[in-house]
Structure to design on (98 residues):
């Protein structure tokens, strides 16, 4: 069933005050969070980095645990591992075949 403006406006008129308040809150949060959520992340988790590089998390973990210099550079804050997107780009570029 397609969109019917008459039905839609009737449904909107029947909203309870709680539903109206919730809708307004959602719109307010959307306006506040959208700029934050649309900003590209600079630091990625290992899962995000693996998707970014199209490599498995297992491979990234092996490179880190072995201390291999051929893996991408990473940051470690406590137990959290993060990958800088700019460093990932620079690292992968070294493998470009000319």
């Amino acid at each position: 069933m397609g969109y019917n403006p008459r039905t839609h406006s009737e449904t909107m008129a029947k909203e309870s005050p709680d539903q109206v308040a919730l809708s307004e809150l959602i719109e307010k949060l959307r306006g506040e969070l959208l700029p934050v959520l649309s900003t590209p992340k600079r630091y990625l988790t290992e899962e995000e980095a693996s998707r970014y590089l199209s490599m498995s998390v297992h491979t990234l973990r092996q490179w880190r645990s072995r201390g291999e210099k051929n893996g991408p550079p990473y940051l470690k804050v406590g137990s959290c591992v993060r990958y800088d997107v700019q460093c990932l780009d620079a690292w992968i570029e070294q493998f470009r075949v000319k």
